[in-house]
Amino acid sequence: MSSDLDTDVSAAHAMFQSYDGMEGLAEHPASAAASESGPESWRAFFLRVYPGLLVSATIALAATWLSQQYKSPVMLFALLFGMTFHFLHEEGRCIAGIEFSSKAVLRFGVALLGARITAGQIMQLGAAPIATVLFGLATTIALGALAAGSLRLGRSFGVLSGGAVGICGASAALAIASVLPRSPESERDTILTVVTVTVLSTLAMITYPLLATALGLDHVHAGIFLGATIHDVAQVVGAGYSISPETGDVATYVKLLRVTMLLPVVFSIAFFVNRGKKGNAAGAKATLPLFLVGFALLVALNSAGYLPKMAIDAANDVSRWCLVTAIAALGMKTSFKDLAAVGWKPIALMLLETVWIAAVTAVAVTMVY
After folding, report:
1. Dist CA 43 CA 45 (whole Å)
2. Per-residue pLDDT reduced to its tens digit, 86-143
3. Domain residue extents for the chain
4. Is pTM beyond 0.90 here?
5. Burial level of 28, CB count in 10 A (0-12/13-18/19+)?
6. Which residue, among 194, 169, 167, 176, has the nearest Cα to 257 in the 3D structure?
7. Residue (of 249, 186, 237, 270) closest to 73 by Cα position
8. Tens digit of pLDDT for each residue in 17-74?
9. What is the rounded CA–CA span in Å between residue 251 and residue 246?
10. I need a surface site. Which of 115, 297, 312, 343 has the fewest CB within 10 A?
Protein backbone atom coordinates (compact mmCIF):
# COMPACT_ATOMS: atom_id res chain seq x y z
CA MET A 1 0.00 0.00 0.00
CA SER A 2 1.37 3.38 -0.96
CA SER A 3 1.61 6.18 1.60
CA ASP A 4 1.59 9.98 1.37
CA LEU A 5 5.37 9.89 1.18
CA ASP A 6 5.38 7.78 -1.97
CA THR A 7 5.62 9.69 -5.25
CA ASP A 8 6.74 9.20 -8.80
CA VAL A 9 7.47 11.36 -11.80
CA SER A 10 4.01 11.26 -13.36
CA ALA A 11 2.23 11.97 -10.08
CA ALA A 12 4.49 14.90 -9.24
CA HIS A 13 4.15 16.52 -12.63
CA ALA A 14 0.36 16.09 -12.63
CA MET A 15 0.19 17.54 -9.14
CA PHE A 16 2.06 20.70 -10.04
CA GLN A 17 0.30 21.38 -13.28
CA SER A 18 -2.29 23.03 -11.02
CA TYR A 19 0.12 25.98 -10.80
CA ASP A 20 -0.71 26.83 -14.40
CA GLY A 21 -3.57 28.83 -12.93
CA MET A 22 -1.01 31.14 -11.33
CA GLU A 23 0.57 31.74 -14.70
CA GLY A 24 -2.57 32.96 -16.42
CA LEU A 25 -2.74 29.75 -18.47
CA ALA A 26 -5.46 27.21 -18.95
CA GLU A 27 -6.09 25.28 -15.78
CA HIS A 28 -5.38 21.57 -15.88
CA PRO A 29 -8.27 19.27 -14.83
CA ALA A 30 -6.15 17.93 -12.00
CA SER A 31 -6.10 21.38 -10.45
CA ALA A 32 -9.80 21.20 -9.65
CA ALA A 33 -9.18 18.29 -7.33
CA ALA A 34 -6.15 20.00 -5.87
CA SER A 35 -8.23 23.08 -5.04
CA GLU A 36 -10.51 21.06 -2.76
CA SER A 37 -8.15 20.99 0.17
CA GLY A 38 -8.58 20.45 3.86
CA PRO A 39 -6.23 19.96 6.82
CA GLU A 40 -5.38 16.42 5.80
CA SER A 41 -4.73 17.48 2.22
CA TRP A 42 -2.38 20.23 3.38
CA ARG A 43 -0.57 17.76 5.63
CA ALA A 44 -0.20 15.34 2.72
CA PHE A 45 0.97 18.22 0.52
CA PHE A 46 3.64 19.21 3.04
CA LEU A 47 4.86 15.64 3.41
CA ARG A 48 5.21 15.42 -0.35
CA VAL A 49 7.10 18.67 -0.91
CA TYR A 50 9.37 19.06 2.10
CA PRO A 51 12.17 16.65 1.03
CA GLY A 52 12.73 18.37 -2.34
CA LEU A 53 12.19 21.83 -0.87
CA LEU A 54 14.74 21.11 1.85
CA VAL A 55 17.31 19.89 -0.68
CA SER A 56 16.76 22.98 -2.85
CA ALA A 57 17.15 25.31 0.13
CA THR A 58 20.29 23.49 1.27
CA ILE A 59 21.88 23.88 -2.15
CA ALA A 60 20.89 27.57 -2.12
CA LEU A 61 22.58 27.99 1.28
CA ALA A 62 25.79 26.34 0.06
CA ALA A 63 25.78 28.42 -3.12
CA THR A 64 25.29 31.63 -1.14
CA TRP A 65 28.20 30.83 1.17
CA LEU A 66 30.53 30.09 -1.74
CA SER A 67 29.39 33.22 -3.55
CA GLN A 68 30.27 35.34 -0.53
CA GLN A 69 33.63 33.63 -0.08
CA TYR A 70 34.75 33.84 -3.70
CA LYS A 71 32.84 36.96 -4.85
CA SER A 72 31.17 35.06 -7.69
CA PRO A 73 27.56 34.97 -8.96
CA VAL A 74 25.38 33.01 -6.56
CA MET A 75 22.98 32.01 -9.36
CA LEU A 76 25.75 30.21 -11.22
CA PHE A 77 26.80 28.26 -8.12
CA ALA A 78 23.20 27.28 -7.40
CA LEU A 79 22.68 26.10 -10.97
CA LEU A 80 25.83 24.02 -11.13
CA PHE A 81 25.28 22.47 -7.70
CA GLY A 82 21.69 21.69 -8.58
CA MET A 83 22.69 19.99 -11.80
CA THR A 84 25.04 17.67 -9.92
CA PHE A 85 21.99 16.41 -7.98
CA HIS A 86 19.94 15.77 -11.11
CA PHE A 87 19.41 12.15 -10.03
CA LEU A 88 17.07 13.36 -7.27
CA HIS A 89 14.58 14.50 -9.89
CA GLU A 90 14.60 11.22 -11.77
CA GLU A 91 12.84 9.21 -9.08
CA GLY A 92 12.12 9.23 -5.35
CA ARG A 93 10.63 11.47 -2.68
CA CYS A 94 12.31 14.72 -3.76
CA ILE A 95 10.51 15.18 -7.08
CA ALA A 96 7.42 16.96 -5.75
CA GLY A 97 9.45 19.43 -3.67
CA ILE A 98 11.76 20.18 -6.58
CA GLU A 99 8.74 20.93 -8.76
CA PHE A 100 7.27 23.12 -6.02
CA SER A 101 10.55 25.05 -5.62
CA SER A 102 10.96 25.62 -9.34
CA LYS A 103 7.41 26.95 -9.74
CA ALA A 104 5.67 28.32 -6.64
CA VAL A 105 8.80 29.46 -4.80
CA LEU A 106 10.07 31.02 -8.01
CA ARG A 107 6.93 33.09 -8.55
CA PHE A 108 6.85 34.26 -4.96
CA GLY A 109 10.45 35.48 -5.31
CA VAL A 110 9.66 37.33 -8.54
CA ALA A 111 6.66 39.03 -6.92
CA LEU A 112 8.87 40.37 -4.12
CA LEU A 113 11.16 42.09 -6.64
CA GLY A 114 8.56 44.86 -6.76
CA ALA A 115 9.64 46.05 -3.31
CA ARG A 116 12.88 47.38 -4.81
CA ILE A 117 11.25 49.91 -7.08
CA THR A 118 9.41 53.22 -6.80
CA ALA A 119 7.92 55.38 -9.54
CA GLY A 120 9.93 58.35 -8.28
CA GLN A 121 13.23 56.57 -8.84
CA ILE A 122 12.30 55.99 -12.44
CA MET A 123 10.86 59.43 -13.24
CA GLN A 124 13.84 61.36 -11.88
CA LEU A 125 15.99 59.90 -14.65
CA GLY A 126 14.27 62.03 -17.27
CA ALA A 127 12.82 61.10 -20.63
CA ALA A 128 15.97 60.25 -22.60
CA PRO A 129 17.25 57.35 -20.45
CA ILE A 130 13.72 55.95 -20.20
CA ALA A 131 13.36 56.05 -23.99
CA THR A 132 16.75 54.37 -24.39
CA VAL A 133 15.81 51.57 -22.02
CA LEU A 134 12.44 50.99 -23.67
CA PHE A 135 13.90 50.99 -27.17
CA GLY A 136 16.77 48.69 -26.18
CA LEU A 137 14.43 46.24 -24.45
CA ALA A 138 11.86 46.12 -27.26
CA THR A 139 14.41 45.71 -30.03
CA THR A 140 16.39 43.10 -28.10
CA ILE A 141 13.32 40.91 -27.61
CA ALA A 142 12.33 41.42 -31.26
CA LEU A 143 15.85 40.56 -32.40
CA GLY A 144 15.81 37.44 -30.24
CA ALA A 145 12.51 36.24 -31.65
CA LEU A 146 13.53 36.88 -35.26
CA ALA A 147 17.05 35.47 -34.96
CA ALA A 148 15.82 32.41 -33.06
CA GLY A 149 13.42 31.67 -35.88
CA SER A 150 16.24 31.95 -38.41
CA LEU A 151 18.43 29.64 -36.30
CA ARG A 152 15.53 27.19 -35.86
CA LEU A 153 15.63 27.54 -32.10
CA GLY A 154 11.97 28.43 -31.74
CA ARG A 155 10.57 31.88 -31.08
CA SER A 156 9.80 31.01 -27.47
CA PHE A 157 13.53 30.65 -26.84
CA GLY A 158 14.16 33.95 -28.61
CA VAL A 159 11.63 35.74 -26.40
CA LEU A 160 13.07 34.04 -23.31
CA SER A 161 16.68 34.93 -24.07
CA GLY A 162 15.83 38.43 -25.35
CA GLY A 163 13.84 39.17 -22.21
CA ALA A 164 16.62 37.89 -19.97
CA VAL A 165 19.21 40.07 -21.72
CA GLY A 166 16.92 43.09 -21.99
CA ILE A 167 15.39 43.14 -18.50
CA CYS A 168 17.23 41.67 -15.53
CA GLY A 169 19.10 38.49 -16.36
CA ALA A 170 18.33 35.33 -14.45
CA SER A 171 15.30 36.76 -12.61
CA ALA A 172 13.66 37.79 -15.89
CA ALA A 173 14.47 34.43 -17.46
CA LEU A 174 12.72 32.63 -14.62
CA ALA A 175 9.68 34.91 -14.71
CA ILE A 176 9.29 34.73 -18.49
CA ALA A 177 9.81 30.97 -18.56
CA SER A 178 6.95 30.56 -16.08
CA VAL A 179 4.41 31.95 -18.57
CA LEU A 180 5.78 30.66 -21.88
CA PRO A 181 4.15 27.62 -23.51
CA ARG A 182 5.60 24.42 -22.12
CA SER A 183 7.51 21.95 -24.26
CA PRO A 184 9.88 19.02 -23.60
CA GLU A 185 12.79 21.49 -23.97
CA SER A 186 11.39 24.21 -21.69
CA GLU A 187 13.38 23.37 -18.56
CA ARG A 188 16.59 22.87 -20.54
CA ASP A 189 16.14 26.19 -22.35
CA THR A 190 15.53 28.02 -19.08
CA ILE A 191 18.65 26.59 -17.46
CA LEU A 192 20.74 27.34 -20.54
CA THR A 193 19.46 30.91 -20.60
CA VAL A 194 20.19 31.45 -16.90
CA VAL A 195 23.70 29.99 -17.17
CA THR A 196 24.60 31.98 -20.29
CA VAL A 197 23.11 35.28 -19.15
CA THR A 198 24.90 34.97 -15.79
CA VAL A 199 28.26 34.37 -17.46
CA LEU A 200 27.72 37.22 -19.93
CA SER A 201 26.65 39.53 -17.11
CA THR A 202 29.80 38.75 -15.15
CA LEU A 203 31.97 39.43 -18.19
CA ALA A 204 30.09 42.70 -18.77
CA MET A 205 30.68 43.76 -15.16
CA ILE A 206 34.41 43.47 -15.78
CA THR A 207 34.66 44.92 -19.28
CA TYR A 208 31.92 47.56 -19.53
CA PRO A 209 33.48 50.03 -17.03
CA LEU A 210 36.59 49.94 -19.21
CA LEU A 211 34.44 50.48 -22.30
CA ALA A 212 32.65 53.42 -20.65
CA THR A 213 36.02 55.02 -19.90
CA ALA A 214 37.23 54.39 -23.45
CA LEU A 215 34.09 56.09 -24.80
CA GLY A 216 34.85 59.14 -22.65
CA LEU A 217 31.55 59.01 -20.76
CA ASP A 218 31.07 61.18 -17.67
CA HIS A 219 29.77 59.67 -14.43
CA VAL A 220 26.08 60.14 -15.27
CA HIS A 221 26.31 58.82 -18.81
CA ALA A 222 28.50 55.93 -17.69
CA GLY A 223 25.83 55.02 -15.13
CA ILE A 224 23.14 55.08 -17.80
CA PHE A 225 25.24 52.89 -20.07
CA LEU A 226 26.00 50.32 -17.35
CA GLY A 227 22.44 50.23 -16.00
CA ALA A 228 20.91 49.83 -19.45
CA THR A 229 23.21 47.06 -20.68
CA ILE A 230 24.44 44.74 -17.90
CA HIS A 231 22.01 41.90 -17.30
CA ASP A 232 21.87 41.21 -13.53
CA VAL A 233 21.26 43.76 -10.78
CA ALA A 234 24.24 42.67 -8.66
CA GLN A 235 26.65 43.05 -11.57
CA VAL A 236 25.23 46.50 -12.39
CA VAL A 237 25.86 47.62 -8.82
CA GLY A 238 29.38 46.19 -8.86
CA ALA A 239 30.28 47.81 -12.17
CA GLY A 240 28.72 51.18 -11.35
CA TYR A 241 30.30 51.71 -7.96
CA SER A 242 33.67 50.56 -9.30
CA ILE A 243 33.71 53.87 -11.24
CA SER A 244 32.21 56.27 -8.67
CA PRO A 245 29.33 56.56 -6.18
CA GLU A 246 27.45 58.84 -8.61
CA THR A 247 27.83 56.33 -11.43
CA GLY A 248 26.68 53.54 -9.12
CA ASP A 249 23.55 55.44 -8.10
CA VAL A 250 22.57 56.28 -11.68
CA ALA A 251 23.31 52.74 -12.88
CA THR A 252 21.16 51.27 -10.11
CA TYR A 253 18.16 53.49 -10.92
CA VAL A 254 18.40 52.74 -14.64
CA LYS A 255 18.62 49.06 -13.85
CA LEU A 256 15.54 49.30 -11.65
CA LEU A 257 13.72 50.86 -14.59
CA ARG A 258 14.57 47.74 -16.60
CA VAL A 259 13.37 45.54 -13.74
CA THR A 260 10.08 47.47 -13.77
CA MET A 261 9.59 46.35 -17.38
CA LEU A 262 9.32 42.79 -16.07
CA LEU A 263 5.65 43.39 -15.24
CA PRO A 264 4.32 44.54 -18.63
CA VAL A 265 6.56 42.14 -20.58
CA VAL A 266 5.60 39.02 -18.63
CA PHE A 267 1.94 39.97 -18.55
CA SER A 268 1.96 40.58 -22.31
CA ILE A 269 3.51 37.18 -22.91
CA ALA A 270 0.98 35.53 -20.60
CA PHE A 271 -1.85 37.32 -22.40
CA PHE A 272 -0.78 36.12 -25.84
CA VAL A 273 -0.15 32.59 -24.56
CA ASN A 274 -3.65 32.61 -23.08
CA ARG A 275 -5.18 33.88 -26.28
CA GLY A 276 -3.37 31.22 -28.29
CA LYS A 277 -4.49 28.42 -26.00
CA LYS A 278 -8.07 29.60 -25.53
CA GLY A 279 -8.67 31.31 -28.84
CA ASN A 280 -11.16 28.64 -29.90
CA ALA A 281 -13.14 28.72 -26.67
CA ALA A 282 -16.18 30.93 -26.55
CA GLY A 283 -15.89 33.79 -24.11
CA ALA A 284 -12.36 32.85 -23.04
CA LYS A 285 -10.52 35.60 -21.22
CA ALA A 286 -6.86 35.99 -20.29
CA THR A 287 -6.22 36.04 -16.56
CA LEU A 288 -3.57 38.09 -14.82
CA PRO A 289 -0.84 35.93 -13.24
CA LEU A 290 -1.02 36.28 -9.46
CA PHE A 291 2.69 36.79 -8.94
CA LEU A 292 2.58 39.78 -11.32
CA VAL A 293 -0.29 41.22 -9.28
CA GLY A 294 1.93 40.97 -6.22
CA PHE A 295 4.82 42.58 -8.10
CA ALA A 296 2.66 45.55 -9.19
CA LEU A 297 1.13 45.94 -5.73
CA LEU A 298 4.54 46.15 -4.07
CA VAL A 299 5.73 48.74 -6.61
CA ALA A 300 2.63 50.82 -5.89
CA LEU A 301 2.98 50.52 -2.10
CA ASN A 302 6.68 51.37 -2.21
CA SER A 303 6.03 54.33 -4.51
CA ALA A 304 3.38 55.64 -2.10
CA GLY A 305 5.80 55.33 0.83
CA TYR A 306 3.79 52.69 2.68
CA LEU A 307 6.66 50.20 2.88
CA PRO A 308 9.11 50.87 5.71
CA LYS A 309 12.79 50.26 5.07
CA MET A 310 12.73 47.19 7.29
CA ALA A 311 9.98 45.66 5.15
CA ILE A 312 11.81 46.51 1.91
CA ASP A 313 15.05 44.95 3.17
CA ALA A 314 13.19 41.86 4.33
CA ALA A 315 11.40 41.52 0.97
CA ASN A 316 14.69 41.82 -0.90
CA ASP A 317 16.31 39.16 1.28
CA VAL A 318 13.40 36.76 0.96
CA SER A 319 13.21 37.36 -2.79
CA ARG A 320 16.89 36.59 -3.20
CA TRP A 321 16.57 33.36 -1.21
CA CYS A 322 13.50 32.29 -3.16
CA LEU A 323 15.16 32.90 -6.51
CA VAL A 324 18.36 31.08 -5.53
CA THR A 325 16.29 28.16 -4.21
CA ALA A 326 14.30 28.08 -7.45
CA ILE A 327 17.50 28.15 -9.50
CA ALA A 328 18.84 25.19 -7.50
CA ALA A 329 15.62 23.28 -8.18
CA LEU A 330 15.76 24.09 -11.89
CA GLY A 331 19.34 22.84 -11.90
CA MET A 332 18.20 19.53 -10.45
CA LYS A 333 15.67 19.24 -13.26
CA THR A 334 18.34 19.48 -15.97
CA SER A 335 21.38 17.33 -16.77
CA PHE A 336 24.77 18.32 -18.17
CA LYS A 337 24.08 15.95 -21.04
CA ASP A 338 20.95 17.88 -22.00
CA LEU A 339 22.81 21.19 -22.03
CA ALA A 340 25.70 19.79 -24.06
CA ALA A 341 23.24 18.64 -26.72
CA VAL A 342 21.93 22.12 -27.54
CA GLY A 343 25.00 23.17 -29.53
CA TRP A 344 26.40 26.63 -30.21
CA LYS A 345 23.34 28.37 -31.62
CA PRO A 346 21.61 29.40 -28.34
CA ILE A 347 24.86 30.83 -26.97
CA ALA A 348 25.51 32.70 -30.21
CA LEU A 349 21.98 34.13 -30.09
CA MET A 350 22.40 35.47 -26.55
CA LEU A 351 25.80 36.92 -27.41
CA LEU A 352 24.20 38.70 -30.38
CA GLU A 353 21.46 40.10 -28.13
CA THR A 354 24.05 41.30 -25.61
CA VAL A 355 26.11 43.05 -28.27
CA TRP A 356 22.97 44.61 -29.75
CA ILE A 357 21.69 46.20 -26.53
CA ALA A 358 25.18 47.46 -25.69
CA ALA A 359 25.55 49.02 -29.16
CA VAL A 360 22.12 50.68 -29.04
CA THR A 361 22.84 52.19 -25.62
CA ALA A 362 26.36 53.31 -26.54
CA VAL A 363 25.03 55.17 -29.57
CA ALA A 364 22.33 56.82 -27.45
CA VAL A 365 24.62 58.04 -24.65
CA THR A 366 27.36 59.27 -27.01
CA MET A 367 25.31 60.84 -29.80
CA VAL A 368 21.76 61.53 -28.62
CA TYR A 369 22.23 63.13 -25.19
Report:
1. 5
2. 899 887 899 999 989 987 887 788 788 888 778 776 677 778 888 999 999 999 999 9
3. 9-368
4. no
5. middle
6. 167
7. 237
8. 433 333 333 333 333 344 445 666 888 889 999 999 999 999 999 999 998 898 777 8
9. 9
10. 343
